[in-house]
Write a structure and sequence with these properties.
Chains A, B: Pfam families: Pyridox_ox_2. Chains A, B: Residues 1-20 are annotated as: Disordered. Chains A, B: InterPro entries: Pyridox_Oxase-rel, Split_barrel_FMN-bd. Two copies of one chain form a homodimer. The first copy, chain A, is an alpha+beta fold and 233 residues long. Chain A has a single domain, classed as Pnp Oxidase, Chain A (Roll), CATH 2.30.110. Chain A is built from seven helices and eleven strands. The first copy, chain A, has helices spanning 25-33, 71-77, 120-134, 147-151, 176-181, 212-215, 223-229, and strands at residues 21-22, 37-44, 47-58, 61-67, 81-94, 102-113, 115-116, 153-159, 162-168, 187-195, 199-200. In chain A, a hairpin with a 7-residue loop joins strand 5 (81-94) and strand 6. The first copy, chain A, is globular, with a radius of gyration of 21 Å. The two termini of chain A are 34 Å apart. Chains A and B meet through strand 2, strand 3, strand 5, strand 6 and helix 3 of A and strand 2, strand 3, strand 5, strand 6 and helix 3 of B. Strand 10 of chain A pairs antiparallel with strand 11 of chain B, so a sheet runs across the interface.
Chain lengths: 233, 233
């Protein structure tokens, strides 16, 4: 894994709560790899448009895909600036004071311009990266894409060059007077995400066993980030 | 609750998968009320910026808040167009074919211009709506905001006038040949979100009981939407 530091620019450098900004690439990878959807922002007709979409990461490239008919994807494929955000909500922070209430979260924001991937083998590779992210184990198990299916999907590559990561993973930051007064409970209510039991599609003509890549899947949330910052006791 | 239909415009009308677009206001309220953070999109220096932030809804108004120092909030307060998205990932859709893999999700996207709330009582009311959303029960329990704290926060109101809701809550939509072949398991792996056990802040000078509004909090995810579309069996 590359250990190159991120290269924040003015627009990717939050001008608030700088202490929450993490500038190492490993943290960026962790936040992206733990997510399932990103929010893709783009400017259409001078107005912002934000759309949720799936993605995959390989090295310092984020792959996005969508229908060739999607206006935002078409604009992105033509080189319009994009902004991609991936956010995890890890807990609700209950402070002694209302205005110190907050959330614990991990968030990555990437700015850049995307490049369409059109060459067949490169496109298949990018789709594999996205599939491995969304449904690891499905590539090689489910039916391969046909040429017609491939043609209907647009795949873009966005470099992870201009990015920022913000993490809040700690207790309330109350004022000393409020801590001293000890009149109000303070703490964190963690939010936990997990996969439930697989639900077979009712249209299977005979019941097939659920494959291990589905039954054994664990959610990618990284508990370490939270556990480290919120030690027991 | 208002039952007025939404008023989609070209930019809020997805031009793909129209069958997934829901145009009733109750669905919009459900998606927004089940969320914890939204993604706020705005145009800064001609480029899109997407930032996660907390919010609250009352009737047909979405309240957003943030530091008065946040550039995106300042631009939004000056009347720049904004786009706000709230997305829930409800499950991974494993199809017989790779290209029909998908996610089950509920997503709301709102377009409009926001108005800053500056009058003291209106601002307190908006902050109460946001607090009641983020941490119901904390208003009236935790210490009230001081004037200095109030001055440091910017609160915006965004009308829920131009909005769209998209929901996918069903099984894979495979091609008939793939269903017929019955060679590949198909189904949904649901994603479940829940609150864990509250973690008291270690700086409490003596242990206070965890208040009921924290211990009894249940996650707002609406299981009905999923259960209705994915019946048992």
């Amino acid at each position: 894994m590359s250990a190159a530091p991120l290269s924040p620019t003015p627009r990717s450098t939050p001008n608030r709560t700088k202490h929450r900004t993490v500038t190492d690439r490993a943290a960026l990878y962790e936040v992206l790899d733990a997510g399932l959807v990103c929010h893709l922002g783009i400017v259409l007709d001078s107005s912002p448009v934000v759309l949720p979409t799936t993605y995959g990461r390989e090295g310092d490239t984020l792959y996005l895909h969508g229908s060739t008919g999607a206006r935002s994807l078409r604009a992105a494929a033509k080189g319009a600036d994009v902004c991609v955000a991936v956010t995890h909500v890890d807990g609700i922070v209950y402070a002694r004071s209302l205005m110190h209430h907050s959330i614990n979260y991990r968030s990555a924001v990437i700015h850049g311009t995307a490049t369409p991937i059109t060459e067949r083998s490169a496109k298949l590779h990018a789709l594999r990266v996205i599939t491995d992210h969304l449904a690891p184990g499905s590539w090689g198990y489910a039916r391969d894409a046909t040429n017609k299916e491939l043609a209907a999907v647009s795949v873009l590559a966005l470099p992870l060059a201009e990015a920022s990561v913000k993490i809040r993973a700690t207790y309330p930051g109350d004022d000393p007077e409020d801590v001293e007064a000890n009149a109000v409970w303070a703490g964190v209510l963690p939010l936990e995400v997990a996969f439930g039991a697989p639900i077979p599609s009712p249209d299977m003509t005979s019941q097939l066993p659920v494959p291990p890549h589905v039954t054994e899947r664990r959610h990618l949330e990284n508990p370490r980030a939270y556990a480290a910052a919120v030690p027991a006791g």
